[in-house]
TrEMBL record:
This is AAA+ ATPase domain-containing protein. GO terms for biological process: microtubule severing. Residues 116-259 form the AAA+ ATPase domain. The chain holds residues 362 to 732 of 732 of the full protein. GO terms for molecular function: ATP binding; ATP hydrolysis activity.
Length: 371
């Protein structure tokens, strides 16, 4: 059912697939046995799809090519991101836990009145951690993640995006529990409809909407354990979003620019693997970063983190550095990141989000946001 990229395998115990540390060869025999036991594409006792990609019975020929392309370009079994990698944003993490993680883990509890949202939208200025949050949700829930960016859809799947959506939702159900993630969803389904809109884009949109209705219909979710598919989208331009899609992305969570506490925590998270001089006070640096996004702060930290190395290279040739390394003397040279490094990097940069733009997000949040 899952792709294996390391020394892992699957074992079958009491009708369940379990991760083991077997080699692929060892696991292969067992998976073959499993195919024989439950039949191609049927479901095991726990309701999960059994068998690998090749066992998907609903696709053949041309569509099988799409299945393979989606598996290659979009499907991630483990995103490797957790909430701990993301500084601050506690409210958003809490909401995502409730709106996405728990319904994926406990589908039998989220029925009736507690039925999960059709879709969840993360909106806010660029570089505030929306994509990271979406990946962390999949990481925390331990579910398959279909990452559909507008760039992949328009370049890789140009002209077949309608077919692709159909295939994508079928696959998401097959691999369920799973998340379908649309990065920059406004670019895929914008409100710039009318005459200017391309026919293919219109068809893509209506296909997307009908599948979103499908997964949230009682028969689509059916309360079957492990069968939940969630749709998650992000946008930097929520006002450009197609209205019908906006209505289906029922839970809309604002991810704003980081406040002082968030910026301080971000500096701590980003610089946790770097030797930092004692003189550096994260909070006073964060005060000077008002209006900077997480991505801006990351760039400043990256630039500053290179400065101790640049100082060393200015004094020593590569051959001398190699010799220091060989004789074990390199570790005794101070390569700490100084306050001067960070201040210099900060002065060279400017916030990527204009001051006026934040009002636009706050206004959209008060008009359409869920929180
Ligand atoms: P968005 O999707 O909102 O445009 P991303 O999630 O792609 O932003 O974030 C861009 C980069 O900024 C990330 O790779 C990460 O390094 C950094 N970043 C942004 N917000 C945070 C955060 N809250 N904690 C840690 N890093 C962050």
């Amino acid at each position: 059912r899952k792709e294996c990229r390391g020394p892992v395998g699957l074992s079958v115990a009491k009708g369940r697939l379990e991760w083991t540390n077997w080699s692929l060869e060892q696991a292969e025999g067992h998976v073959e046995g499993l195919y024989a036991d439950v039949g191609q594409g049927q479901r095991g006792e726990d309701g999960r799809a059994a068998g690998g990609p090749r066992s998907m019975p609903m696709f053949s020929g041309e569509d099988q090519r799409l299945v393979e392309a989606i598996e290659g370009d979009m499907l991630t079994v483990s995103t490797g991101v957790t909430f701990d990698d993301i500084a601050s944003l506690d409210a958003a993490k809490g909401l995502l836990n409730e709106a996405v993680v728990l319904p994926l883990l406990m589908p039998d509890f989220f029925t009736g009145l507690r039925e999960p949202w059709k879709g969840v939208l993360l909106f806010g200025p660029p570089g505030t951690g929306k994509t990271m949050l979406a990946k962390a949700v999949a990481g925390v829930a331990g579910v398959c993640f279909f990452n559909c960016s507008s760039a992949t859809l328009t370049s890789r799947f140009r002209g077949e995006s309608e077919k692709l959506v159909k295939c994508l939702f079928h696959m998401a159900a097959h691999y369920a529990p799973s998340i379908i993630f649309f990065d920059e969803v406004d670019a895929l389904a914008s409100s710039r409809g009318d005459e200017g809109e391309h026919e293919a884009s219109r068809r893509f949109k209506s296909e997307l909407l009908s599948h979103m209705d499908g997964i949230s219909s009682p028969s689509g979710r059916s309360g079957e354990v492990g069968k939940t598919v969630m749709v998650l989208g992000t946008t930097n331009c929520p006002w450009d979003l197609d209205e019908a899609l906006r209505r289906r992305l029922e839970k809309r969570i604002y991810i704003p620019l980081p406040d002082l506490a968030a910026r301080t925590q971000m500096l701590q998270v980003l610089l946790k693997t770097v030797k930092v001089a004692e003189e550096v006070c994260f909070e006073s640096l964060a005060e000077q970063m008002q209006g900077y996004s997480g991505a801006d702060i990351r760039l400043i930290c990256r630039d500053a983190a290179m400065m101790p190395m640049r100082r060393l290279v200015a004094k020593k040739s590569p051959a001398e550095i190699l010799e220091l390394k060989r004789t074990g003397q390199l570790d005794s040279i101070d390569t700490s990141l100084t306050l001067g490094d960070l201040t210099k990097a900060l002065k060279k940069s400017s916030p990527s989000v204009g001051a006026g733009e934040t009002h636009k997000y706050a206004k959209w949040d008060s008009d359409f946001g869920s929180c």
